[in-house]
Amino acid sequence: MPFKNYDQMIGERLKYLRKLSEFSQQDLAALLNVSVDKIKNYENGIDRIPADKLFDMSAILNAPISKFFDQLESSKTSKLLSDLNTKDNDIELYERTLKLIKLFIDIKDIESQDLVISLVQKLAK
User: Which of 3, 39, 55, 109 is in Cβ range 3.0-4.6 Å of 25 for a Cys bridge?
Assistant: First the structure.
């Protein structure tokens, strides 16, 4: 995903992790004792996230701090998430995708994961 700066990259990861944890911007703002506008500015890379807030976000979202710095390895996955993040009218698809990923990760049996993949491949045709 092409980022103009590191603040933007970290902001995108914050947004992703917040949605994955099913927190609203309002919820996170209240827990961090900041305004909703501040959360929006963090997510858009307008404001740099202070280290203490990043540490608190890590605990609240139950994600290691390193997750805020992860780069997506697959260019296909990167393009998909980029497209989903930039289209306001696709926010519902973005949320459903996150929910599907979260549920898929919870499937521990490899054969069951393969069945889900097979089913989705058939449905996508």
Answer: 39
Q: CATH for 1-86?
A: 1.10.260.40
Q: Where are the domains of the chain?
A: 1-86, 89-125
Helices (H), 1-125: 6-20, 25-32, 36-43, 51-60, 75-86, 91-106, 110-124
- Report the share of the chain in percent with pLDDT over 90: 38
Q: How far apart are CA 48 and CA 70, in angstroms?
A: 17
Q: Give the number of other CB atoms < 10 A from CB of residue 17.
A: 21
> Which residue in 69, 68, 60 sits closest to 23, CA to CA?
60
Query: 14, exposed or middle or buried, with CB in 10 Å at 0-12, 13-18, 19+?
Result: buried
Indicate the burial class of 27 (C-beta count within 10 angstroms; 0-12, 13-18, 19 or more).
Answer: middle
